[in-house]
Amino acid sequence: MIDALGYLVSAAYSEDKFGVIQQTLPIIIRLLLDIKMAEEKLPIDLVGFRTHVKDPYGRYDHIHQRISLKTSVNAALCRIADTFKNDINGIYLPEEYLRYFQRYLNRRNT
């Protein structure tokens, strides 16, 4: 769902003639950043954990889900930042969120 939301917002930049997505863009960005900040606060040690480990008892499912969530949120925020980087001044974000979103705006493409 998060990946789809990131793709939808990015595609809306050129496809949405009525600006429906652009009107809700600050809410979407804040939502994704809230998820990202909450995920970073969870204390789970992933050192030495291999993501391909299959556990018949489901003991590591929460770790797999967290890795998947983290990857999806990062990808969506990067995609949105790449798409709207030239127009970010026209999007109202509270100072705290804007400061956090700057990480994605200032990152270098590798």
TrEMBL record:
InterPro entries: Nucleoporin_prot_Ndc1/Nup. It comes from the Eukaryota. Pfam families: Ndc1_Nup. This is Nucleoporin NDC1 like protein. It comes from Argiope bruennichi.
